[in-house]
Amino acid sequence: MTRAGCLNQGAERKGGHSVAAINVGLIGTGRIGRMHAQHLAFRVPGARLLAVANRSAEAAESCAAESQVPAAFTEYQRILDNPDIHAVVICTSTDTHARIIEEAAAAGKHIFCEKPLDLDLARIDQVLAAVAKAGVKLQVGFNRRFDSNFRRVRELVAGGEIGEPHIVHIIDRDPQPPPIEFVRCSGGMFLDLTIHDFDMVRYLISSEVTELYALGGVMVDADIGRAGDIDTAVVALRFANGAMGSIDNSRQAVYGYDQRVEVFGSKGMVAVSNKKPDTTECSTSRGVQSALPLHWFVERYTDSYIAEMRAFIECVQEDKPPPVTGLDARIASVMAHAASKSHVEKRPVKPSEIDTTMR
Amino acid sequence: MTRAGCLNQGAERKGGHSVAAINVGLIGTGRIGRMHAQHLAFRVPGARLLAVANRSAEAAESCAAESQVPAAFTEYQRILDNPDIHAVVICTSTDTHARIIEEAAAAGKHIFCEKPLDLDLARIDQVLAAVAKAGVKLQVGFNRRFDSNFRRVRELVAGGEIGEPHIVHIIDRDPQPPPIEFVRCSGGMFLDLTIHDFDMVRYLISSEVTELYALGGVMVDADIGRAGDIDTAVVALRFANGAMGSIDNSRQAVYGYDQRVEVFGSKGMVAVSNKKPDTTECSTSRGVQSALPLHWFVERYTDSYIAEMRAFIECVQEDKPPPVTGLDARIASVMAHAASKSHVEKRPVKPSEIDTTMR
Amino acid sequence: MTRAGCLNQGAERKGGHSVAAINVGLIGTGRIGRMHAQHLAFRVPGARLLAVANRSAEAAESCAAESQVPAAFTEYQRILDNPDIHAVVICTSTDTHARIIEEAAAAGKHIFCEKPLDLDLARIDQVLAAVAKAGVKLQVGFNRRFDSNFRRVRELVAGGEIGEPHIVHIIDRDPQPPPIEFVRCSGGMFLDLTIHDFDMVRYLISSEVTELYALGGVMVDADIGRAGDIDTAVVALRFANGAMGSIDNSRQAVYGYDQRVEVFGSKGMVAVSNKKPDTTECSTSRGVQSALPLHWFVERYTDSYIAEMRAFIECVQEDKPPPVTGLDARIASVMAHAASKSHVEKRPVKPSEIDTTMR
Amino acid sequence: MTRAGCLNQGAERKGGHSVAAINVGLIGTGRIGRMHAQHLAFRVPGARLLAVANRSAEAAESCAAESQVPAAFTEYQRILDNPDIHAVVICTSTDTHARIIEEAAAAGKHIFCEKPLDLDLARIDQVLAAVAKAGVKLQVGFNRRFDSNFRRVRELVAGGEIGEPHIVHIIDRDPQPPPIEFVRCSGGMFLDLTIHDFDMVRYLISSEVTELYALGGVMVDADIGRAGDIDTAVVALRFANGAMGSIDNSRQAVYGYDQRVEVFGSKGMVAVSNKKPDTTECSTSRGVQSALPLHWFVERYTDSYIAEMRAFIECVQEDKPPPVTGLDARIASVMAHAASKSHVEKRPVKPSEIDTTMR
Fold first, then answer.
1. Which of B56, C282, C299, D16 has the fewest beta carbons closer than 10 A?
2. May I ask the CATH architecture of the domain C144-295+326-358?
3. ipTM for the complex?
4. Where are the alpha helices (DSSP H) in A206-262?
């Protein structure tokens, strides 16, 4: 009989040579934090989740129990103080991101942080400066880049399959609106929802947006309008390489999570349709019926969340640049602010109007 | 033995009672004129194509022979002078449309005319006034309204299947650019190509565009740019009912004629994919391959051209309003001019800036 | 002004040189006869439909009027006696096919005949002998060979795209059963319905069936059983080249005309799905709904009927072998008889048991 | 700070009341055993994998390390002897299944065993008797029943969506043949591969096969033929409820794992297409290309393997009958033996000829 070691699975999977496990602390055990905790505990080879923290002891302990984490704290500083911990995963509310990143960087921890880094651009710049000064890695949670659909589109575009890209179109519609309390502190739909698409267009066609025009409206829920936000939008885009595009957003697609992109170019076009739970087609006298798209972000994007966390652990292990950087997050934020300005001022806006460093 | 009558098929198809055949003259026997002639001769019940006209005797006679038409003229006035002819189908070049419509109206003929009526809005207004004064019918050739795909989308939207429309998206890409000579006299891509989409959005969601913003560029062929036109465009739209939308155009989709629409609403979404010549899927070690979309407008839209001509003959026979009116054509032209202005002035434009009667 | 000639469209379409029009007489103006008459009159270049015949004068005259045919007879011999007529199209009931073919052959007419030639194999052999002796062409109405879907599958298989064929599967389901009176004189489902599939498997994989096993049952309508027939079947097949296959039939698919095939081979697989009237997909909270398949043979197979008639006229004009021969019809009949025997005797049957000439 | 417990995630997830964790030992750490170990360790709430066993110490220890299992043995009896272990999962080679099940039953362990229980029917009966006598649960590894596609088809059929089932068709093709050594001891393709489909048809339409006719051949690899087996088959089926069906098998589909079913009935039809890694469609001038099906059983069926193991743990926890019983396994084996006999004797065979208890 042999007593098996305590390493997480896969720690020794890297070909012949052994790779050191990365010790991780996770801060914030809300819905998305618990999901990341489970992935780090059970599905990310090479990660060892040593501690979780939440202001609520009950939430922290429940997450720890669920994911077999040895320690649960109410003070996240306990994680930052632990010299055995190499990396932190920040899943707290947006208004705390900047501060915790700065403290984690000062403590020499590598950092994964959910998007957005902050609603304020100047604050983002402070954060990025702190990270740069500390020399730690910062990866931001644009998980969709790790989805097999969007990744494949990028591969095909980057591989020249469709020639020079001319037009990109993104459809990004939530299955249902967030709670009004969330809407109030979200920074607005462009900063909360469309920001994913602003990152995605850059990812897909590897060119920067030079001008955008945003149409927005309240079509889904008048309360969202009363909270000062919109729930429906169309954004027209122009890119540095001459390409054009549009983004189409809604807070409520009653048929599920609508997540599609299409890139058209000089030699062809690549598009993705929605992912579904099964491929059944049922034909009756009333029509041919197939399954609805996967309904909510957890079922739709689980694989991409696992892949992004694996990529984060791998970039720490192998000392590589993170696949989604702080600069990526900053640019998407600039675009979101430009969209808000365009919507308010009813005119096309250049991102360089928002960010004087881009001029 | 019985000598069968000379009537075209279907003249007596209308239930029990007999319907008088409509005698038609066709003016202009270029590519699209010859196609309409074949349809009128062989595939439109109740139509009797009595004469065709073209400045070239050879072209007129060849068309007449091909479609078993008893008379071929070089002067279209011969058609207008014939009191037996009830209706004319005008397929000449755009710059002659206005004049021929006016003459035909004066001669008391019902009129089908290919789009656009004229490149100049004031001239369109003169034409519409002449038609109104003569009390004849005028149907304009927005054939796509008669396509089974778009017709079905409209039915579903109008029937409330998707609730209130929030976002409409149209993809309209030609398989290859027109000749440069055509580009030069076409009035520009917005007036030649996008005009179909301007009509289509109105048809699909039954609301008028109140503002649009047009991005355009030359991505396909620099010669098109040198001729003063664009070949690629994205147009963002806002409608009177609050809905938003976008149109995506290219003069060259190398994979065929890309003709899709999607309407998203409060209770669902309806979309159409391209029509294909066959439904084969071939799976090999290299991938799963299916057929390209139908490549050119004749193969793609033949059924819609037949249906539009049947609708024209029927509206004359039954004295009903035409399904596509001169006003429809005028509005689409206003939108096209607004798009050109937006593209040139790089700002959102309201159609009412173009058409002071809309204010 | 020019008086246009009376030739059907396209008679002069063959490149530069002129091709003589083929004068045709059509015998039998039931549902399928009227359809062929319309095609010959309006949609088959090079055909000139001079006369139609039907025992009912009213039916003959109505068909003639509908398709602008100059002559309508109650005696088909009037067609056979006319020396100007080069070819006949036989659309009468099955029990008259053999006799009319023999008479037409004796009169030196080229022959297109709907399937089956006869329910009795010995009688088919007499007919084929008469045709051979007369030296006229005989094409049999397996129209599905001319459908774009099945034709494309054959091209891909014959072109080696899927390597050596290993397994073929055909789904052939009618939308609704024929009238019981038809069932009684049809020769049974294998001879009426499955015979299309017996022809199709040979067409698709270019190898002969050496053994088959047929399961049949009455699942749709007990009256069909009382009339001595079946309405549902599965037939397993083995081919000379080692391939295997199965056919799946029903007299009633409530969702429409189900017409699919799939061929699997050493290098891949090719399959076709059903053709549909439109490509809409409507997503609501209840599911994603698309259109039903085209419902009935006329809407589903019109293009293939036109193509088969064009091929017939072309083989007469150009003195080429017909694309579907009397031997093809004979082999499909032998297979149908073998299936009936297998079903009755509940054992695998070799076609050579039916046809001693195949041993 | 709190030291979190050692329980696997989810042990306390069952609503309000706590459910006891099930302690599991796994026997056989080959490819499929290691997969089940990972699932039991990380993805099956309520399971606690305490030990693994393999004749090779290295294999056992490597599996234990990978899945954080506290104990690894070379003698599986060590697992049976452990009174803390409630259930065993048997993943050894087929020839050892019967013996280990008997010993595990004698030790009072609940049992999950991979299929088939044994190649010999009499031996299966002994095993089932031993299990019955011991009063333990036995679940057999027909994992496909837990796949979302097939489960959904069954739900729709059982829910009456397609009315009475008339015809079922299964396509089951491996991406590549197993090693020849495996072929030699597998009992033949019907017992190794088709057995899944024999179980599936029963699962889908809830009726027993009363007669089958099996065609088989060697089309893929002559070595398989030399080893006394076949690699390609078509099996025709008749069911007690009158329905018919066919199964289509190949050991090599070069385009991936082809896993489809279709059930046709009096009110409709339900079919599933293959699952794919992404939904991209790339249109170029050469065609429209989409992704190949998932290629191998691990990527295709991981979710079903997890679901079957969850179902096993749940049936032990809640003392419910297993969702796939020993009798299910026995019936599928009888069908496989009947198929072999049909193939050898070239005639339809009734399962009751194999199993006299079924008469």
1. D16
2. 2-Layer Sandwich (3.30)
3. 0.93
4. 222-226
